[in-house]
Amino acid sequence: GESVGLHLPTLSVQEGDNSIINCAYSNSASDYFIWYKQESGKGPQFIIDIRSNMDKRQGQRVTVLLNKTVKHLSLQIAATQPGDSAVYFCAESAGNQFYFGTGTSLTVIP
Amino acid sequence: KAGVTQTPRYLIKTRGQQVTLSCSPISGHRSVSWYQQTPGQGLQFLFEYFSETQRNKGNFPGRFSGRQFSNSRSEMNVSTLELGDSALYLCASSLDVPGQNSPLHFGNGTRLTVT
Fold it and tell me: Could you read off the pLDDT of B96-106 as tens digits, one per residue?
């Protein structure tokens, strides 16, 4: 089966600082990646995606970086806010199914 | 556009019973996937339906089943419930084949507790 792992299970950052959440994937054939945010009591919410023909993509306050050489994905959140506190998942796909990591819990300290 | 709707939000059942969960996808989305989420396990794929056909299935016992209707709404059923079935069950819809540049959009899940 696929293996999608996160380097850190928890991350605490000061409000206003930048956050970086990392993800390692094992399938070199994976060509589509997504970051999700899950708040307590809710389902995962789509944040940003990236295809393997790109190495960087930016959204509102978020940037995803893809390094296919080392099979590594990261999510950068600029000026982290209390509302960013949640569990973040990366997901990878090589075709017809997504595989999810176990998630990183981000806590923003006011 | 309304998001993915799952009902009920909470369920409490006893061992041996069976349960049916319902999911209404985003309008226009033809694919519905189901996941089980438990603490520390992440999201475990159950199955995926497209145009009323199961296209993909995860590694769950036959007690877990599902179906999709002509309006793309989907249901999943768990029979002979076990304590270990207690989990958050998430439904996700996508425009086309999940993973082929078609992201999953999740509902808020059904929290099932088996006692």
Answer: 877 777 899 99
